[in-house]
Each structure stands twice: as structure tokens, then as C-alpha cells.
Amino acid sequence: MRRYLGLLPPVLILAGVLAFCLWTGARVGADSQRWRQPLEQSSEAALAGDWDAAGDLLAASYDDWRTRQLFLHIVVQHQVVEDAEAMYRRAASFLDGQETEEFRAELADLIHQLLALEEQEQLSWGNVL
Fold it and tell me: Count of CB atoms within 10 A of residue 121's CB?
């Protein structure tokens, strides 16, 4: 029995790490979905020519994105976060110029980047191996 008690600390540590990984994946997934929804709506607003609504939706997504930066820089690869940040800035510049096709293309790329961010944190064999 005492022999098995020596295994308890490593098992507890591994269980804690697994729980943190699962929580992180769920949290990043929920955040990503919350960021993508206004971006999709912004793209539709731009297509309809409602640039004020498109700008408000982009700003809402970006503001929410900014509140999670510390967390993202701790748990996610920095390059993915930096690429998404650059895409937000490029989308804002296309919005300012009211360039519909470029704006919508940049939003599509940003949405894809946020999906990639979510997939990186999911528990899967590809991520484990």
C-alpha cells in the first residue's frame, strides 16, 4: 500500500495538468466563437453597405479580443495571436477605406485564423502527438 502512495503526487500533478488543458481548450473555443460571430455579421453589414454597423461589429469583436490578450499569450502560440492581431488591424484599415471585397476577404481570413486558434487548443490526437 505504501508503495502506491508514492505514486499519488505525480498522478495528482498529471490530473491537474490535464484538467487545466481541458479547461483552456474549452475557454479558447468559447472565446473564439464569441469573436467570430460579430465578424461574420460585420462582413454581411459591409456587403449591404452599412459601414457604421460593420465598424461597430468589428470594434466589438476587437475590444473583446483585447481583453483576453494576457491569457492568450500565456496559453497559445504567440505567432497565432500576433497574426490575428495584424488581421484585425488590416480589416480596420479596409473598413476605413470602405473597400468591400478586401474588407470581407480579410474578415474571412481572420475568422479562419480564429478557428485555427481554437483547433490548436482542442484535445485531439494531432495536438497530443
Answer: 23
Helical residues (DSSP H) of the chain, grouped into ranges = 2-5, 8-47, 51-67, 69-75, 78-96, 100-121, 125-128
Q: What is the pLDDT of residues 50-76, one digit of tens each?
A: 999 999 999 999 999 999 999 998 988
The average pLDDT across 7-18 equals: 87
- C-alpha cell recorded at residue 108: 474571412
Single pTM value for the model: 0.85
**Cell reading at 32:** 473564439
Q: How far apart are CA 39 and CA 54, in angstroms?
A: 8
Label residue 31 exposed, middle or buried (CB < 10 Å: 0-12, 13-18, 19+).
Answer: buried
Domain 2-128 = CATH 3.30.160: no
Ranges of each domain in the chain: 2-128
